[in-house]
Amino acid sequence: MGIIVLMSKEVAKERIILGIDPGTNILGYGLIKEVKSNMELLTMGVIRLDDLSDHPLKLQRIFERTLAIIDEYHPDCLAIEAPFYGKNVQVMLKLGRAQGVAMAAGLARDLAIIEYSPRKIKQAITGNGNASKEQVAAMLKSLLKFTENPEFLDATDGLAVAVCHAFQRNDAVDSGKSYSGWAAFAKANEKRIS
To answer: What superfamily would CATH give domain 14-188?
Structure first.
């Protein structure tokens, strides 16, 4: 498994960050290239799952498509939105599985996995932890200087996770939760997987 090496601001001059907003009908993703303090949009998009009614098939598609994205862009890390707590247990369970499968794809390629809460992501992008998806998308367009409107805001949500992680470099190094492999994730999350 990969090992996380904490780097000073001067050592890591370039990295590619994959951000994922997990979902059970639409999963959003975005990739940025960070060179020193400059960010460049590489791509963003969605993995559509709403044509599948079988949940295991959705999970298989998430895993396969996430691996394909990783193999195409070779990110240095995967930043992912942590599930929010809702009242519907079945929805939470399915969303957690989607997140777990995306994380497993990253771990299969020895990527460091970093989790951020939805509020932390919105706060990092807009300065407001309660910002709307539209406000987040507008700020990302300004920050990364792109004009196209994605078909689904899930794409900009995934991009927001990547940008949030890039902003963390200015704080304590990777202030999100990081895991060096499946064993580290399991040990840190015993209550979630038991």
So the answer is: Ribonuclease H-like superfamily/Ribonuclease H (3.30.420.10)
